[in-house]
Task: structure prediction
Amino acid sequence: MIWKIAKKEFLLNLMTFKFAVGAIACVLLTVVFMPILAADYRQRLKMYNKNVVDNETELRNVIVYRNVKHTIYRPPVVLSAFSAGLEKQLAGSAKIELEKVPELSVTERGGNPYLPILAVFDESLIFKIIISILALLVAYDVVSGEREQGTLRLMLSDPIARHQVLLGKLVAGLITLSVPVAITFVIGLVVILSYPMVALSGSDWIRIGLMFIASLAFTVVMFQFGLLFSCLAKRSSISMVLGLFIWIVFAIVIPNASVQLATQFRPFESQETQNGRMASLKEDLSNELRTEMDNVKELFSKSIITSDKRDAFGGYYAKRRDIYWLNAEQKLNNLTIPIKLKYADKFWDVEHRYLNGFFRQKHLAHRLALISPISTYENAMAVLAGTDLAGFQDFINQVREHRNEVVEYIRSKTDDFSSASFFAICTEKESTEFTRLYVQKQEAKDEQAKAKAEQALKEWERANPAKAAPLNLQDFPWFKYRQSFARDIRAAVPDLATLLVMNVILFAIYFTAFGRYDVR
Amino acid sequence: MIEIKELTKRYEDGVLALDHVSYGVQPGEIFCLLGANGAGKTTTINILLDFIPPTSGMASINGHDCNKFPLEAKKYVSYVSENVQLYGMFTARQNLAFFAELAGKKGLKKKDYDDVMRTVGLPEKALSMRLKNFSKGMRQKLGIAIALLKDPPAILMDEPTSGLDPTSAQEFLEQLRRLRERGKAILMTTHDIFRAKIIADRVGIMKQGRLVAIRQRQDFKHADLEEIYMREMQAAETAS
Result:
């Protein structure tokens, strides 16, 4: 019996103008925008690959350990075409350096990264706008329309229970709406896969499967809202107005209001305060560095060669210096690098505290917005695509771990930043010999002795040319980004469960409402 | 077949729509309920179809209490509304099949549809026409066709001739006669005293929720039913 009603409803739905318009709109938008999104992904992937190669080449050419500064890039997410999330709002790269602990940053084009709707186009936008409205339009007259038409009386004059009628209508709505949902997904996938360089892994397919389920669950929630209004209102015009009203509330009012409320209830320090803290820290750092500099000033004063500008830091590394300068620089590094590392942590702490406040506010806004199925769905899709905030936080945490590994690596290779290899390509032994010959030349008593000493220095230099050989990075801790599939799935569970609970609650409410519905 | 005992309905706003009404409709009988708007005619139908519960009393079809066992009771009844509005985008055949299947009719063949169309006076080609192209008269006939396909022992009709042109109304009466011949118990509410006189075996006259009179066919066969109606209404007015 339920199936008979479902079949009838399904056929009638397919024949309606609104369904045709909705389905065509979905197909058109997918066909028009997915190639753009796929091309954009390909472009970003190309750029990512180039950046990674360039970065590695640069790193492999580094000569001294203090110049081990490289950038880590987050690979673009192939599923961002389905849900762009924050991928274009948050920076997908971070610099690894001793003086700074990496942290998330917002890109210039980011603006407000939590703008609820219409921020970026992706496939989930089709669901959030077109299919959600279509679901409401399919549902709004399912009961009230049949009542106005008189067919509900005729149907219920047959030996059929009301719950069977309702279940039939629900099943029909599900089947009807799964048509545009499936078409949109299939076309999207076909377009994406038709592009070279685009490949989907096994976990991507599972993610897509879950995204499809989330999209269906969301569409059914919107359909059931329409059905609820249809069961509450006697006239379909009223249920349609209620449906469109609730859509505006879900799509615009709740996401914006939740951000506003979160701003009120969970404020965090202003950018100015953060800048003030940073400036104060910078001052402390330079004071501490100055003090240490003063401590080693005396050592530097013993330096006998003072005009080695070309050699000193022409390539950001020292080629050849006298042993006094080398020892002074070693001492200075030994004293200042730990301070810089300490302050890097302090700077990060300030930055992290600021961002943490921002993210805590965002989490509250998200929790408040959970009452809107559109927000819940948006979040579930971003989590499943791997473009949500947590995904970026996971990336930056991995980058931070990597930076710590790099710091430890350099520390171990440079005897706690004090060996010459940290900043120079010469060894202590070479510098000692160079200094000895240099002093010998300077202190020569007569011309003959001076010429001899100069000759000896030149011969030594010829025999020991400055070799700017790249570092051996065989045991370097290379970064490998691990996108956590399990984390994403776990993170998506609350949103998926919320959509499920919404469906169950809505069903219970309109089931009760229809039981009391006045069919007269 | 259709039994109404001491049926009372008071709406939530306090309006007494039915006041201890009792009567029955036997197989092969057409019982016409006459009365002004708000007399309680449609309320009776609504209770019989379990669209609303009675305040007290009982309505039953084929011995099944319509309020307690509505699904059982509805197995034996078919309903034709004042304005048969089926699914406009479906063809007549799709509409017939859908409602007949809901009533539990299975395995209907083309011949069954052709027969029922012929019986109600609709051309066979109308089977493949969409309902949105049907006139009101054609839709009423299709409503009867659905009732025929379901083939229940009782039929409830709520103002079925309302808005029909004279020819369609005449054809409709023909259908009613055939249904009576097939032993159906028909309860029909109407304002149309003229046609009630032609077709009814008994008439019940209702006023403000009360059944003020029941007249047998012999009482009005050769008399002016309208006059009887007016007289009974006046008597009820005086009594109240």
